[in-house]
UniProtKB/TrEMBL annotation:
Residues 227-273 are annotated as: Disordered. It comes from Xaviernesmea rhizosphaerae. It comes from the Bacteria. InterPro entries: Cbl_synth_CobG-like, NIR_SIR_4Fe-4S, Nit/Sulf_reduc_fer-like_dom_sf, NO2/SO3_Rdtase_4Fe4S_sf, NO2/SO3_Rdtase_FeS/sirohaem_BS. This is Precorrin-3B synthase. Keywords: 4Fe-4S, Heme, Iron, Iron-sulfur, Metal-binding, Oxidoreductase. Gene3D superfamilies: Sulfite Reductase Hemoprotein, domain 1 (3.30.413.10), Sulfite Reductase Hemoprotein,Domain 2 (3.90.480.10).
Length: 485
């Protein structure tokens, strides 16, 4: 039986499996390899060695993914093998098996409630033991299954979708969530036992099963406290947050700070710009510097230059961070300020209010064979023209095709390419695969974005966010504004 046109289109735009170092993914500019580090911290010398290899064997373009992995672009079949050999010789600590993710500040954050690195080691040991006891155990788990460990520190991991999530409430108290379902409070050993039981249940259900498919009531879990019956309210879809119903997507529910159920935890910090790590052993304050890449991409040579400057200022390690960022540490206050200025001169983002941080863009044309747009160029135009709208409430997604790889969830505004290269769609409050609300001419994009910015700026009520204004105007009001000369 032949597939219908709609079914064929859906299949053509389907997102594939994640690339790895051993199995790079074909793209429009060659092969793309992804390196997922096992450890939170990488020595600067090791990071430089890998980046030098990326420049030697690839196109020189590197990316950090939304979950904090390093991607290297422009490899060939031959150079990909050479790059993998260089990475192996460097000693880069590649993670194996299902993702076990911790705070990028783990080990540095003196305000963390628990030791996320120690818990990660225990859970990786569980996975290894289960694989040793039942060959093929990890192959029976979902390919993209993830375990997130939130140690209750300054880094906010709630935007990372997780199948299993441990959230520290005290040094030896962990709350387990299966998807978004609260499975109860455990001591450290009980949390390990509960995660093992959950993984075994998922393996029995098969590769299509995710954490949200488990029912805590059917598992034998040594909880200190039963799961809370409250259903968390669905959060607003703000920049950096994962969207979708909590029950269905596995986003972390909001935890009440300072409540009887949870020890007070520090306020979350933005992982771009200065990060105060607090006083050290000698009571001198220590800092980290978080960087962002403009539209998720940077040149390896620029990053190497930055790391050399960071090392000269006393930094010793690099940490990859969620939401396409990286962190270098430790730094004194004077060194931090000097390094920020040098990073900005190299084109990196060092300030949380930079409009480019609110724009997610895929590799685009010509880097991706599926793309119909020069997404990086359009993203730069949009960040400039729509800057008044990018107030923290609006996330803009620029996608070269309906797959939506850079932001596979709903955004306030999405510009998406399609078969007609001179046209692009504007999706309001949706995903790249959704039907566009408005069609735009690429040749008039600057004018359209300027009119949209003026329309929203003029229509905003006192105290109203740009996103709330966009919702109030709706597709009809926005379309009318875009049609004005």
């Amino acid at each position: 039986m032949e597939m219908s046109g709609a079914r064929q289109a859906t299949t053509a735009w389907r997102r594939g499996a994640c690339p790895t170092l051993a199995a790079p993914m074909p793209t429009g500019d060659g092969l793309l390899a992804r390196l997922r580090p096992r450890d939170a911290a990488l020595p600067l010398s090791l990071a430089r060695a890998v980046l030098l290899a990326a420049g030697r064997h690839g196109s020189g373009l590197v990316e950090i993914t939304a979950r904090g992995s390093l991607q290297v672009r422009g490899l060939t079949a031959r150079s990909a093998a050479d790059f993998a050999d260089d990475v192996a010789q460097s000693g880069f600590p590649l993670a194996q098996g299902p993702a076990v993710e911790i705070s990028p500040l783990s080990g540095l954050d003196r305000q963390a409630l628990a030791d996320g690195q120690a818990m990660a080691q225990r859970l990786r040991a569980v996975l290894a033991e289960e694989e040793a006891g039942s060959s093929g155990f990890t192959d029976r788990l979902a390919p993209k299954l993830s375990i997130v460990i939130d140690e209750g520190g300054q880094a906010d991991l709630s935007g990372l979708i997780a199948d299993l999530r441990l959230v520290a409430e005290a040094a030896e108290r962990w709350r387990l969530f299966l998807g978004a379902q609260d499975a109860g409070l455990f001591d450290a050993q009980g949390a390990v036992v509960a995660v093992r039981a959950s993984l075994r249940a998922l393996a029995q259900l098969g590769r299509a099963a995710r954490g949200r498919d488990l029912d805590p009531a059917t598992l034998t879990l040594p909880a200190l406290e039963a799961a809370t019956p409250e259903k968390p309210a669905e959060p607003e879809n703000e920049p950096g947050a994962e969207t979708g119903a909590l029950q269905g997507q596995g986003r972390a529910p909001e935890m009440k700070r300072g409540s009887a159920r949870q020890s007070p935890r520090p306020e979350a910090v933005t992982l771009v710009g200065p990060i105060d790590l607090g006083p050290g052993d000698r009571l001198t304050r220590s800092f980290a510097l978080g960087l962002g890449f403009a539209f998720g991409q940077a040149r390896a040579a620029d990053l190497i230059a930055f790391l050399e400057l960071a090392e000269a200022e006393g930094a010793a390690e690099l940490r990859l961070a969620p939401d396409h960022g990286l962190i270098v540490a430790p730094l004194g206050e004077a060194a931090l300020r000097r390094l920020m200025a040098r990073a900005e001169a190299l084109g990196f983002i060092t300030r949380p209010d930079n409009p480019a941080r609110a724009v997610a863009a895929c590799a685009g044309r010509p880097a991706c064979a599926s793309a119909c747009l020069d997404t990086k160029g359009i993203a730069a135009q949009a960040a400039e023209r729509l800057a008044p709208l990018l107030d923290g409430s609006v996330r803009l997604h620029v996608s070269g095709c309906p797959k939506g790889c850079a932001h596979p969830r709903a955004a306030a505004l999405t510009l998406v390419g399609g078969p007609a290269q001179e046209r692009l769609g504007l999706v309001l409050e949706g995903q790249a695969a959704d039907a566009p609300s408005i069609a735009l001419d690429v040749s008039d994009l600057n004018g359209a974005l300027t009119r949209l910015s003026r329309c929203v700026s003029g229509a905003r009520l006192a105290g109203e966010s740009a996103r709330a204004c966009l919702r109030r105007l709706g597709p009809a009001g926005i379309a009318a504004a875009l049609q004005q000369g």
